Amino acid sequence: MASSAVKLANPNAEVLRRGDALAMNIQSARGLQNVLRSNLSPRGTLKLLVDGANQLMLTKDGKVLLSQMQITNPVAVMIARAATAQDDVAGDGTTGLVLLVGELLKQAAVYVEEGVHPRVITDGFDAAKAEALKFLDQFKTQWTADAGMDRETLCSVARTALRTKLQDRLADQMTEAVVDAVLAIHQDRSKPIDLFMVEIMKMQHRTATDSRLVRGLVMDHGARHPDMPKRQRDCFVLTLNVSLEYEKTEVNSGFFYSSAEQRDKLIESERRFVDDRLRKIVDLKNSVCSGASKDCGFVLINQKGIDPLSLDVLAKHGILALRRAKRRNMERLQLCCGGVAQNSVDDLTPSVLGHAGLVYEHVLGEDKYTFVEECDQPRSVTILIKGPNGHVLQQIQDAVRDGLRAVKNAIEDRALVPGAGAFQVACRRHLLRPEFLRSVRGKAQMGVKAFAEALLVIPKTIAVNGGYDPMDLLVALDEEGQDGHAVGIDLDTGDVLDPAQQGIWDNYRVLRQQLHSCSVIATNLLHVDEVMRAGRASLKAPNPGEEQ
Fold it and tell me: Rounded CA gap, 340 and 335, in Å?
């Protein structure tokens, strides 16, 4: 009836009725699932994306793939948007979410083909999701607020996240950098963790294993005067947001002169404002770099511009000056070196200065980088990523971002969940208990069973991507986990292991968000009984020569 009404209103409309619409939704979800299936786990494969300009991107990050792939199917687009939202909320879990949605629809299709109404199945999904979330709270390992997580546990969390994106050797190296970076910015336990205080700087140079943590700041520009010092030790750092260049007036105005003397006076008066500011900066430098500190360096980092004449004055007094620094770097500098950023030069005192043990310039081709290192207790750090080409740098950057989010989530949640597929196997066993199934009324039990079986897509995929038989491993996991022990898949031996002892941890909030999102998305797709392409684009008049 609805389709005929739409046809009457718009003869150009395309309509899929209940059976066809549901089949299209399931096929679309499973198609997207098959694309991402091979990426899951540390043994997952990579995807090579080629855009219209033949630019290459080599990745196995689900969020990157879903963001960069050109997806035209409306159902696949809907799932991709929900999966990328998972990354925005929890920082990881996009691939697992797509797999769960596809498997939920696959399991539901078995019952729908036997005549069970989709609404009954979705009622079972809701009951199973609520019970699974309760079981997740029981299954997680909790840390107290007083004790907190030790560094080794956080390293295990970061290593688990990074090994799914990078080679084992590189992942183990970046693990230390990621954990130390988060701990450095989280010295004040009463404040939330701001990951923007971890600068990720890419440098196309040498190999990926040369990437490291810089306990300070790396800026992607250098001094603009050839005579300025390139390397200074035991430096005073002054951060300014003051213009040190001639500025035009905000209104249209003109100056007229009738002699060379008047012109010289005009130029002198224009420079006087900037020269007064420079004089105060130089006086501060001379006052602090005297006596016992006469060999100390002086670094000026300005958010606004510095004109060539001012650069020349600063260079003559041995001041290393950088101009047009990013606003975010001005915040990071205060956290690295101490001191207070100044918006005026009128009240400059030694108390507003920061300190850095080493400041030097690194030239790479036409690019210049300035390193501010050896800071005392820095609360902002830089992860320096090196690599031979652009797509390697981008791959490492995406992995580092996931690692930082994983460590941040672990510290904030104070809870972790054993990984390697342990939770999914244990949750399936919990949902299929007769006690819980009896609490679900009628045919909705079919939805609970479908939800429980769909959870196994994660351990099955891990096993397949590791090159092992999934059925054999599922039987072994089921036997070992009968006593309530958390057991996962050992990708090195193809046997079972204790994830907690091996340091394989999943984030609590990632799994919680996955369980919630997969059920909501699958429920919405199962409730679709018609797909209508009848938007305004279809109402345009046909072009001349086209058939009605």
Answer: 10
Report the alpha-carbon distance of residue 464 to residue 34 in Å, rounded: 13
Beta strand pairing status for 297-302 and 319-322? parallel
Structure tokens given for 145: 């607020």
Q: Which of 42, 126, 141, 94 is nearest to 508 (CA)?
A: 141
Report the C-alpha gap between 283 and 402 in whole angstroms: 47
For tokens 């035209």, what's the residue? 72
- Coil, helix or strand for 62? helix
**148 confidence band (pLDDT: 50, 70, 90):** low
CA 58 – CA 64 distance, rounded (Å): 10
302-317 confidence digits (pLDDT tens): 888 888 888 888 888 8
**Cβ neighbours of 105 (radius 10 Å):** 27
* Vertex 487: Cα angle to 484 and 491 (nearest 5): 170
> For residue 461, what are its two tokens?
């995929």
What separation, in Å, do the N-terminal and C-terminal C-alpha atoms of the chain show? 24
Q: What span, in angstroms and rounded, lies between the C-alpha atoms of 13 and 36?
A: 33
Beta strands in 139-178 (DSSP E): 141-142
Each residue of 125-140: b (16+ CB within 10 Å) or e?
A: bbbbbebbeebbeebb
Give the residue with greater pLDDT, 201 vs 531. Answer: 201
Determine which helix (DSSP H) or strand (DSSP E) holds 205, and give its type and residue range: none
What CA–CA distances, in Å, run from 347 to 187, 229, 284, 333? 30, 26, 10, 20
Handedness of CA 389, 80, 426, 104 (dihedral sign): negative
Sheet of 319-322: strand order equals 217-219, 367-373, 354-364, 231-240, 297-302, 319-322
pLDDT digit string, tens, across residues 371-410 = 888 888 888 899 999 888 887 888 888 889 889 998 988 8
How far is the C-alpha of 275 from the C-alpha of 267, rounded, in Å? 12
Whether pLDDT at 486 is above 70: yes
**b/e sequence 156-182, b meaning 16+ C-beta within 10 Å:** bbbbbbbbbbbeeebbebbbebbbbbb
**CB-based contact 113:102 (threshold 8 Å):** no
* DSSP assigned state of 251: S
CA distance 358 to 296: 10
Residue type, 296: C
pLDDT at position 6 is 47
Task: Give 248's pLDDT tier (boundaries 50, 70, 90).
Answer: low
Q: Where are the beta strands (DSSP E) in 477-522?
A: 488-489, 496-497, 505-507
What per-residue confidence (pLDDT) applies to 9?
Answer: 46
**Within 10 A of 497 (CB to CB), how many other CB atoms are there?**
19
139-142, Cβ contacts within 8 angstroms, sequence gap of 24 or more: 139/417, 139/418, 139/423, 139/426, 139/427, 139/486, 140/415, 140/416, 140/417, 140/508, 141/415, 141/416, 141/417, 141/418, 141/500, 142/414, 142/415
Spatial distance between the Cα atoms of 215 and 383, rounded to a whole number of angstroms:
9
Q: Which residues of 433-472 are buried (b: 16+ CB within 10 A; e: fewer)?
A: eeebbeebeeebbbbbbbbbbbbbbbbbbbbbbbebebee
